[in-house]
Amino acid sequence: MRPTRRTPAPLPITIRDITTTTIRGKADVSSNSLPALRQSSTFVPETAFGIWFLRTRTWEHHVLRVAITDLKRLIHAPMPHAPVIVDAGCGQGISFKLLAHAFEPSRIVGVDCHAPSLALAKQASMRVPVEIDLLHGDCAALPLPDASADIVFCHQTFHHLVEQERALESFRRVLKPGGLLLFAESTDAYIKSWVIRLLFRHPMHVQKSADGYLDMLRAGGFAFEAHHVSLPYLWWSRAKDFGLLERLGLYHSKPGKRRETLVNVAARKPL
Hints:
Layout: E1 11-15, E2 18-23, E3 26-27, H1 48-53, H2 57-73, E4 84-88, H3 95-103, E5 107-112, H4 115-125, E6 131-136, E7 149-155, H5 164-174, E8 175-186, H6 188-191, H7 194-199, H8 210-219, E9 229-230, H9 244-247, E10 262-268
Parallel strand pairs: 4-5, 4-7, 5-6, 7-8
Antiparallel strand pairs: 1-2, 2-3, 8-10, 9-10
Helix pairs in contact: 2-3
């Protein structure tokens, strides 16, 4: 006679100011029905489509992994041993294993203001052999001590933020002197394209060009040179045709003769 298997009672998971439940190790949140966060004065949340897209292979491998690889290439300086990384706008935690592999941190702190995404980030953290803390908070007011991080990683978060300058002030505050800001963002040329406006939601009045973001980083007190900046022109960022014409050999764009869609920067907080 086979023993009867009992479904374990839900176990509480507490993520600084958030409580959810898990059953059999899975978050009690449906991956395709995550509720969008109510718009606040500082942040415009993703649509349901956007939240779903963040769990796709395209996002992990063609967007996130490529950005982290490029940002690491832009550093051009010795990295601190076992750094503390703040993932500002960590979402569902897809970045955790990629950051752990790229930088071998002693600790990752994920910050996001969307509670259901943080519940999924908690599950992602359990599959990464690094200490990971999750905080429910605003990028414009990171709930962290001064000079507590070696790296702030901010990937595709700024186009959701209304108070972008305040967020940079917060990043600079939590970074140690000489600490790194790894910044990867889509420009207004991409965010304002018709297909992105149809499928996603963003505060249009704060979107910037690549030069606009670079100027903002400098004005925010971050230091970088030309070799710390890249302007990728990836297929998914070309919302007009998603790179199809170039794949067919019918069109080839050149830097300086196109509207840049992405900007990656490895900037430092001065000593």
